[in-house]
Fold this protein.
Amino acid sequence: PLVLGIETSCDETGVGIVRGETLLFDAIASSVDEHARFGGVVPEVASRAHLEAMVPTIERACREAGVTLGDLDAVAVTSGPGLAGALMVGVASAKALALALGVPLHGVNHLASHVAVDIVEHGPLPEPTLALLVSGGHSSLLLVPDVTHDVRSLGSTIDDAAGEAFDKVARVLGLPFPGGPHIDRMAREGQVVIDFPRGLTGGRDAERHRFDFSFSGLKTAVSRWVQAREAAGEPVPVADVAASFQEAVTDVLTRKAIDACRTHGVAHLQVGGGVAANSRLRAMAQERCDAAGIQLRVPRPGLCTDNGAMVAALGAQMVLKGRAPSDLGIPADSSMPVTQVSA
Ligand code: ATP
Ligand code: MG
Ligand code: FE
């Protein structure tokens, strides 16, 4: 099936076109530059930008993919979770397209889409797959028997998401928003010389929160460390702090992901979400999976951060597996739970 997918949960207007399990084109327009001076995404600005970018981005995706709207077999859209006003632009656009073309609409979960995108990169997902989902708003370990209708949460962050921690630490270090890519880049010039805390990995909390994460203590530890330096009138070794922070995050993420694979007898680990673009996380996950005999799947960085291809990829799976389409009346669901794959 030929499926067009629309993503507008945050500041990226993404339109991807997938045929079966092949990505034809992934068009993205981002309003990130408009938010940078506020140090975070401004919902109202994001919604307006989606509205302006939607039609041109759909047109560009079709043109580059070499298809016309009349060729589509289905339309997929992120129905949640995300910013309510931003989601609404995508959902309304997808409904209009599906209605006008007379094709089914599939409202899908943004988080399941971060997992499903790997299908257009590395082929069908083994069932079950263990997924480490690490993004700007979420950090979870998921057991995924079937990405089209059975996603189970083994644990998640009890405070900040991994991407949120990257962005907050970047701000402490005076790096621009969004900070993740800047920390990644700075860390390459630094050394891991500071032993920052690994949340929920020791003591009684570690037992109770075996597959959960906590990054707010780490963020606080980094900002205290930086403040102490500044108070002493000493320069802050930004690259070393970035490298040490990044090492602490990736150590916990990969350790817990591999523990989850072992505990649940799953031999495949998929890593998705914006933080999966991180070069140290990718390298450490590869090393540790190799050592543990686990097969690692991580999409190319451009498919880890938000995009339309991920939505089209999951939409195509819904069609291939014969899942019922969504009602044309579906709402945008800003707090859609990770376990709910479709609307
Ligand atoms: P969610 O998917 O939870 O709704 P989101 O869609 O806003 O959140 P994504 O686009 O999936 O988030 O990911 C964005 C996050 O990924 C940001 O926090 C950003 O800093 C982080 N990120 C992007 N690239 C990197 C990188 N190379 N290293 C670390 N973090 C990164
Ligand atoms: Mg973004
Ligand atoms: Fe995302």
